[in-house]
Amino acid sequence: MMRVNPVAKLLAAAVIAAVLVLSVDWASALTALVLEIPLFMALRIPLRAFLIRGAYITVAAALTALTNLLYGEPRGEVYWSFLLVTVSEGSVELAAAMFLRVLAIALPSVVLFLDVQPTELADGLGQIVKLPARFVVGALAGMRLVGLLRQDWEYLGYARRARGVADHARLRRFTGQAFALLVFALRRGSKLATAMEARGFGAYPTRTWARPSTFGALELALIAGGVVIAAAAVTVSIATGHWDFIGGR
């Protein structure tokens, strides 16, 4: 996969998402989805990783579409109705639009960040976007602790089973273990904040960075690709008469 600055990936995905949420039609979403495939190929996204994450996103998009199909606002011909469930011509069109829209928005947001490390993203946000160093470093430290939650959960389960308090009442066990994990995470976060403060993090408005974050032609091309995809999606939707601005609903 091509090494591209995470900030460029973030901006490209944000541009596509920001435009696609303005309308609920299927034409703009389908156009964006079709144009995103060449972008992924140009960036040399690993096929296996793309298929695995694409499958999860497809399931989520299908569930969203199902909800709109069954409970969407009835419009046009009604095909089937039972209690609160109404399947109509309008709900079918809305379900198709939402399915494509979730795919078109979520795929760039997930696939483009397959190889992004939190440190690289923090370097880019601090050096290129010029976000406050205190916020960037603090967020980076928090992101690094997220990976420990699963390990802490497993260790808490082992400890509770060793004491014989995890053999019955699964719901109560889950609630108690979740509360213990929350307390443990708060304590660890407080200790980390104290340690960072003691080492001078956030003591000065500006700071130096160990790894320079570069932004060149490849990053500009990726952002331009996101702008082209968004513009093409809006153009095709308006030209075909499918544009359905959310503010007009």
TrEMBL record:
Presence of the UniProt keyword ATP-binding in the record: no
Compartments (UniProt record): Membrane
Main location: membrane
Membrane topology recorded in Swiss-Prot or TrEMBL: Multi-pass membrane protein
Entries under InterPro entries matching the protein: ABC/ECF_trnsptr_transmembrane, ECF_transporter_component
One GO CC annotation: plasma membrane
Membrane-spanning parts: 51-71, 92-111, 220-243
Pfam families: CbiQ (PF02361)
Keywords in alphabetical order: Cell membrane, Membrane, Transmembrane, Transmembrane helix
Protein name: ABC-type cobalt transport system, permease component CbiQ
